[in-house]
């Protein structure tokens, strides 16, 4: 028996990033489980088309309505709209923590100022998640779960997965074509990446920007290393996609990368970018990956198996809460 008459999942219109894809995946999995779930695009008063990359999920679209017996799920960056729900049950899905807290791990004072500005604009509650206890909470990461528990909230686990087209051995068939290339997302950890590029001019650092899905796959398939020294607000998709294209990962320790639940790769591939020996350690590790790639490729085998299992876990978590015993 369904817990809710209808489940509305709120998604910003026109956005093509990891969060919106997860929201479309959620609705698709729910419908496959015969749950009455729909995407609702924000702003609510304007018609919106499903972005082309997400049409594959066939997520039905509905208009926003606040009706008793329904559940409305908002991404964590829209908490104040969730608090305005009067009749339906309102929930947040924590797809990130840093984005909610406006935390960039560069200058803590600036993080607090950014959050305060959101409070002044009416986009965040003063006092953080402690002011959101009236809502139902789903958590994508161990990182956000620990924060919510510190606020007196016990969230329901609800992960996501990357595009299932990548969760095969299609891009893991061989390694002899791999080149000594270091890929990076130019929007993540820019200052750290710039320091590495300056320190190692002999190596080819290639930014992933302006690429369509096919071009991105070609780039990931050809390179040996993907780096991410950003703030890892959630279980970021790009490192996962890179791993499933046969890249070795090197990350920092910020955000969700700081624990072994959200990013379960061997510890040696996580470097503290604030340490005095970071630049040297990065050079030693990357040089070893370039010269002994097959060995490092094998060390990420368990992580790739973990990623392949994510869709099953995602579906099971949906089933456990929405079709299992009532734990709300």
Q: How does the SSE layout of this entry go?
A:
Layout lengths: L6 E6 L5 H15 L4 E6 L28 E5 L3 H5 L5 E6 L3 H4 L6 H13 L15 E4 L2 H9 L5 E2 L21 E6 L5 H10 L4 E4 L5 H10 E6 L8 H8 L3 E4 L26 H14 L1 H7 L1 H22 L6
Parallel strand pairs: 1-2, 1-3, 3-4, 4-5, 5-6, 7-8, 7-9, 9-10
Plain-language structure description:
By secondary structure, the chain is an alpha/beta fold. 36% of the residues lie in helices and 15% in strands. It is built from 11 helices and 10 strands. The strands form 2 sheets. A 6-stranded parallel β-sheet has the order 2-1-3-4-5-6. A 4-stranded parallel β-sheet has the order 8-7-9-10, sandwiched between helices. Helix 1 links the parallel strand 1 (7-12) and strand 2 (37-42). The longest helix is centred in the C-terminal third of the chain and has 22 residues, at 301-322.
Task: For this entry, give a set of tags.
328 residues; alpha/beta; Rossmann fold; 4-stranded parallel beta sheet; 10 strands
Major sheet attributes: 6 strands, parallel
The CATH class of the largest domain is: Alpha Beta
Helix proportion: 25-40%
Radius of gyration: 20 Å
Beta strand %: 5-15%
How many discrete structural domains? 2
Provide a concise account of the structure shown.
The protein is an alpha/beta fold and about 325 residues long. The protein is about 35% helix and about 15% strand.
